[in-house]
Amino acid sequence: MRRLIPVLTGAALLIIAALAVMSRSDAETAAVVPPPVTDEANATATTEVAVLAGGCFWGVQGVFQHVAGVTSAVSGYAGGDAATAHYEKVGTSATGHAESVRITFDPRRISYGRILQIYFSVAHDPTQLNYQGPDRGPQYRSTIFPTTQEQADIAKAYIAQLNQVHAFHAPVMTTTEPGREFYSAEAYHQDFLTRHPDNAYILYYDQPKIRKLQLVFPDLYRSDPVLVAAMQ
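Below the sequence we write its predicted structure tokens.
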């Protein structure tokens, strides 16, 4: 279970900031993975929902809040039932839930395939099984929760494509779990990256993701995030 790291000051914060700069340097040299060969047909709908899990939802939410065409990104839980969709219970690793983000987007501006390209390129490391960085347990697994059969087909084809071309140093461990409900997380988890920019965890693990998004997807980067708080 991830510990909520407090805001640091003084020498400790300087050390964390220096390590974060090193992570940003790694992000700057990283290459974007190829786009999916199979993607949605020309969209006529104005809204679509994707649900993705890739470790701590703070960073995944923060990334997609900065993506043009995304109208909402909400942290939450998927994979288990409503009774256990609570942070303390999910942290036991026994609920079936994964920390997830529900992404609402305009498919006329950004396709589901491009959402997945950002997910694999920026939001997390899909080669890690049941962990991301310091976070351990199945609640931090790399999982796509398709909301339609078309999304399921695209996701499976893309995972196979990435493995076939050896896009990463190791096989993609991302799974797909269709037919799962999404449950919003507690209010204190929403917009966490924006509200706590000096949090040590955010500085080291998540701010480099935002920098990488800006670097490798400049045409899709938006400087002002779309926040949950603004919609309430």
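Residues 10-29 form the longest helix (20 residues).
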